[in-house]
Amino acid sequence: MASTTPLKSILRPQPPRKKKVPEVTEEQKAQIEKDKRNLDLALKHAHRIQYQKDVEATILNSTIALLDFPSSSTFTAREALAFTTLVKNFQPSDYDSLIEERRIDSKCGYVLCPQAPRAITLGASATWKLKKGAGDWCSDHCAKKALYVRTQLSEVPAWERVPQQFPDIQLHADDAPPEDDPLVRRAKRAERVNEWRTKVADDEELAAERGEKTSSFRPNQVMSEAVVEKKVTGRAKAPEIEGDLFAMPGGLIEGYAPRKVVAKSRIGGKAQADEYEDDEEEEDYEEELDDYDE
């Protein structure tokens, strides 16, 4: 069987052609930058809208969860803590919606009360026996405790608040759990830890803006207190004045010529030039007269 050898071309191999990259004009660069800014702005607004939707969904879920409070005839410390935590994102209008939903569900408007509202217990006579809105609670005492929580809520929407604008909700003195309760101590400890983490994060951000590097999570040790004197490499020299000192116009302030002085020097120089031209014209006229006399 005859072996076949690959055929070789007698032509000189051509180098691969380089693709020409089209040059980008200044207008195209400006358009690219504009499109990039528009995209960043659109994404920023999209993230903000999505965050608003997430917060509104959280408020709705909190309202649904608070409809079932309390689970027994008396509320527990865990339910009280959950109540103060869930209503932090509420506005007063959201809290009013919660009270209305509980009244429709035949429950007192105060979340920690298991009784039925007076609008249910009094029946049709509640419309003329009670003031407007008084039928949402089982008693005036529950109304007082519910409004005590409402006054602590922020009018700013939760998606527009800064961390300092989230209120620390406190229950009425009659329902406040004791300080030695384990859940209360644990919740307060968690709040202190969150505040410390927020403060450390803010200090690290400020240090990054100053161009410093934090070596630990201790905010008070971000900056160094060591002061080092700068080394002098040469002798101090007085500034030198360029040009002739006496040729400078008067009125200079430490070598700086104000506008009036510059304008005055220009006017003076122009006047001197005009006088010189007049003198030359007079000399030429006198020479012409002498020639005429001769």
From TrEMBL:
<dbReference type="InterPro" id="IPR038534">
    <property type="entry name" value="Rtr1/RPAP2_sf"/>
</dbReference>
<dbReference type="GO" id="GO:0008270">
    <property type="term" value="F:zinc ion binding"/>
</dbReference>
<keyword id="KW-0904">Protein phosphatase</keyword>
<feature type="domain" description="RTR1-type">
    <location>
        <begin position="85"/>
        <end position="162"/>
    </location>
</feature>
<dbReference type="InterPro" id="IPR007308">
    <property type="entry name" value="Rtr1/RPAP2_dom"/>
</dbReference>
<keyword id="KW-0539">Nucleus</keyword>
<dbReference type="InterPro" id="IPR039693">
    <property type="entry name" value="Rtr1/RPAP2"/>
</dbReference>
<keyword id="KW-0863">Zinc-finger</keyword>
<dbReference type="GO" id="GO:0005737">
    <property type="term" value="C:cytoplasm"/>
</dbReference>
<feature type="compositionally biased region" description="Basic and acidic residues">
    <location>
        <begin position="21"/>
        <end position="32"/>
    </location>
</feature>
<keyword id="KW-0479">Metal-binding</keyword>
<feature type="region of interest" description="Disordered">
    <location>
        <begin position="1"/>
        <end position="32"/>
    </location>
</feature>
<feature type="region of interest" description="Disordered">
    <location>
        <begin position="266"/>
        <end position="294"/>
    </location>
</feature>
<keyword id="KW-0862">Zinc</keyword>
<feature type="compositionally biased region" description="Acidic residues">
    <location>
        <begin position="274"/>
        <end position="294"/>
    </location>
</feature>
<dbReference type="GO" id="GO:0008420">
    <property type="term" value="F:RNA polymerase II CTD heptapeptide repeat phosphatase activity"/>
</dbReference>
<protein>
    <recommendedName>
        <fullName>RNA polymerase II subunit B1 CTD phosphatase RPAP2 homolog</fullName>
        <ecNumber>3.1.3.16</ecNumber>
    </recommendedName>
</protein>
<keyword id="KW-0378">Hydrolase</keyword>
<comment type="function">
    <text>Putative RNA polymerase II subunit B1 C-terminal domain (CTD) phosphatase involved in RNA polymerase II transcription regulation.</text>
</comment>
<comment type="similarity">
    <text>Belongs to the RPAP2 family.</text>
</comment>
<dbReference type="Pfam" id="PF04181">
    <property type="entry name" value="RPAP2_Rtr1"/>
</dbReference>
<dbReference type="GO" id="GO:0005634">
    <property type="term" value="C:nucleus"/>
</dbReference>
<dbReference type="GO" id="GO:0043175">
    <property type="term" value="F:RNA polymerase core enzyme binding"/>
</dbReference>
